[in-house]
Amino acid sequence: MLTYIPAIKRHHAAPVAWLNSYFLFSFADYYDPKNIHFGPLRVFNDDTVQAKSGFPQHPHSEMEIVTLVLEGEVAHEDTMGNKTLIQKGEVQRMTAGTGIAHSEFNHTDKPLHIYQLWFLPNQKGLAPSYEQKDIDFLSHKNELIPLVTGQRVLEDVVYMNSNTTVYWANLREDKEIEFKTFPIRNTFVYVKEGTIFINGSEIGPNDQARLTDENVVHIRAEKDSQFILIDLPATEANY
């Protein structure tokens, strides 16, 4: 079953002049009891941060936090002592675990565009940890590129404490991808640009598809497209 959520249904938030966000799930001032999470995917924010701006230090706990940089670069500092730059095409994972605080700034003269995803961890009380990798995911064509996963069989991928895998695809016009799944898994798709057909349903820019009880997810690009696909456990026992 495919649930289609058009771009207009995203919650738009611009709490300060330098931040423009779209929340795909309940977050901050947006609360919808029917849209809290999809499996362990608890937060998906599509954020644009203007030049010379950013988030001051703030705390987190008991979450796996993943940041994908689509444009620009993020200056990250945290209470573990990490001081890093996450640049376009790079992936960052932070295990908040028992507690961590961090800041995220755009020190450049151009806007920063990121996706930030929070996942419920597969266990509580984990020690805070950090990983960052240049996967150059924006350059690969016509395949699903794994970015972050809880499946240790995948190589050259950021690891997180969740039975989940996040993929990226840059799919050329008329190209197709077939993703095999199981009814015990869910699939989440969010389109950055272009138009794709998922199991026959048209999905456009900033639209979502949430799939349950499927064996195969067939995707065809109507035009050159970029999208994120997340493979998730369907039941809490498998998070």
Written overview of the protein:
Residues 155-232 form the Quercetin 2,3-dioxygenase C-terminal cupin domain. By secondary structure, this protein is an all-beta fold. The protein has no helices and 22 strands. The chain has a 7-stranded mixed sheet, with no helix packed on it. A hairpin with a 5-residue loop joins strand 2 (11-13) and strand 3 (19-23). The protein is globular and about 45 Å long. 35% of the residues are buried.
Overview features:
239 residues, mainly beta, Pirin family protein, RmlC_Cupin_sf
TL;DR?
Helices cover 0% and strands 54% of the residues. It is an all-beta fold and 239 residues long.
Structural class: mainly beta
How much of the polypeptide forms β-strand, as a percent range? over 45%
Distance between the termini: 21 Å
Q: Can you tell me the overall shape?
A: globular
How much helicity do the residues have? under 10%
